[in-house]
Structures are given as C-alpha cells and as structure tokens.
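stage 2 :: seqdesign
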C-alpha cells in the first residue's frame, strides 16, 4: 500500500467521497444537518491510500484558523477496513499539517460513526467543545489533537 498527496479534483477521491456520502446517508439519513459540510470543491490537501494502484481510502485537511487544520472526508473502503489504513491516512494528514506550519488538527463527526471515533481516540484525539455552527447540531462530536 502507498499513500499519495493530491487535491479534490482527483477522480478517485471524488469516487471515494461518493461512497462516503452514501455510507453517512445510510447512518444518519439523507437530510442530516452534517451533510451541509460535504462539499469537496476546494480542497487542496487530499490524501489517497492506494493498494495495487486502486484507491481504497482517503482524507483531507483544510485550514480552520491560524493554528489549526480541520480533517475532512476520511473514508476507507469496507473491504479493506481493519488493516489500519485509516491510521496511515490520518498520520499523513497530521504530517502535512505540521509541514504547513499548523500545530493542531480538529475535526467533527456524527455520533453514529463509532469506528471513526475509535480511530481518532486510538490516535490521541480528545473530545472538545463543539465549534462553529456545530454547536446547534445535537449529534455532532468534535475532537482535536495537538501535533
């Protein structure tokens, strides 16, 4: 497996995000308030995990504020889960954030994503107070990690 850096114009990233959106709609419902944050049109920092030249996972980061990057659109194909691919993607996103001069990563997720919650907690993310518009979404969870 290898990890590559790209952007949101990558067709494989777009394909994986469609699968992610379908998964989230199945968990949360199609009109869930968190779905408003699913836009990927302007993501300049995207990571893909490739196995045999096929994209099997993805994630991205975007600037939240002067010291924090926000992790977005993390996904690993169901048939390859359980192999720590999410951890490799997350690690690459954290390294990229550090390279860009940021000292913290933050993220939000829905409460119906226990696998994601375990991944982040296993990698030293801690729950924080909800930020921004997320304060008004009852089942959103926010996490952070100092890099």
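stage 2 :: out
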């Amino acid at each position: 497996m290898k990890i590559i850096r790209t952007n949101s114009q990558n067709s494989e990233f777009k394909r994986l995000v469609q699968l992610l959106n379908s998964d989230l709609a199945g968990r949360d419902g199609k009109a869930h308030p968190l779905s408003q944050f699913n836009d990927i049109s302007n993501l300049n920092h995207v990571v893909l995990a490739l196995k045999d030249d096929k994209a099997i996972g993805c994630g991205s980061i975007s600037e939240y504020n002067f010291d924090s990057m926000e992790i977005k659109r993390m996904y690993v194909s169901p048939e390859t889960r359980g192999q720590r691919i999410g951890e490799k993607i997350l690690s690459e996103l954290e390294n990229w954030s550090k390279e860009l001069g940021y000292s913290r990563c933050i993220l939000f997720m829905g409460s119906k994503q226990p696998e994601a919650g375990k991944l982040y907690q296993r990698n030293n993310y801690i729950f924080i107070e909800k930020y921004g518009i997320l304060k008004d979404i009852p089942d959103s969870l926010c996490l952070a990690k100092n890099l």
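stage 3 :: structure notes
- The beta strands are 2-6, 45-51, 54-65, 68-76, 104-110, 126-128, 140-146.
- The chain has a mean pLDDT of 94.
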